[in-house]
Amino acid sequence: MLQCSVHFLDMPQKDPCQKQACEIQKCLQANNYMESKCQAVIEELRKCCARYPKGRSLVCSGFEKEEEEKQTLKLTPQ
Fold this sequence. Notes:
mainly alpha, Helix Hairpins, 3 helices, about 50% helix, CMC4
């Protein structure tokens, strides 16, 4: 789980999208974990992830995996 109060002291660089990931956690906690209420902050994380090369942000790895799966589905003959 992402720790929002600690700045990854062991990591050589701070994750560039950590702030957005923490905002998602706060939003979900405040809204009883209803993802639909947090779409704006989720979109902000997606935008942040799009600004950095794949693998640069640990918190973006879930979106990267999601994109890979979408691409695989597009390439699979139906």
